[in-house]
Amino acid sequence: xxxxxxxxxxxxxxxxxxxxxxxxxxxxxxxxxxxxxxxxxxxxxxxxxxxxxxxxxxxxxxxxxxxxxxxxxxxxxxxxxxxxxxxxxxxxxxxxxxxxxxxxxxxx
Length: 108
Description:
With 108 residues, the chain is mainly alpha-helical. The protein has one domain. It is 72% helix and 0% strand. Helix 2 (16-55) packs across helix 3 (67-85). 7% of the residues are buried.
């Protein structure tokens, strides 16, 4: 008994429009991943900036801060930075990085 592939499968493999659509989907997925990474970088940058800004505020107070309070404040700053970088607005660092990577000016 001889098993031959169906003509339908052979025709689909030769159809370049299907292959082109798959390539476009891969490019779109890569673009989304690149933008996510750029937004994460912006979030880390904002977090570092907020931590440095907080160092300029004196910690003088009636009650001494515990280690738990310091950890909570750092976690709070981290969440603030994530929210600031979220969406299309942010500081714009993610958008600039994304455009530079897409144009090929910055090599990975």
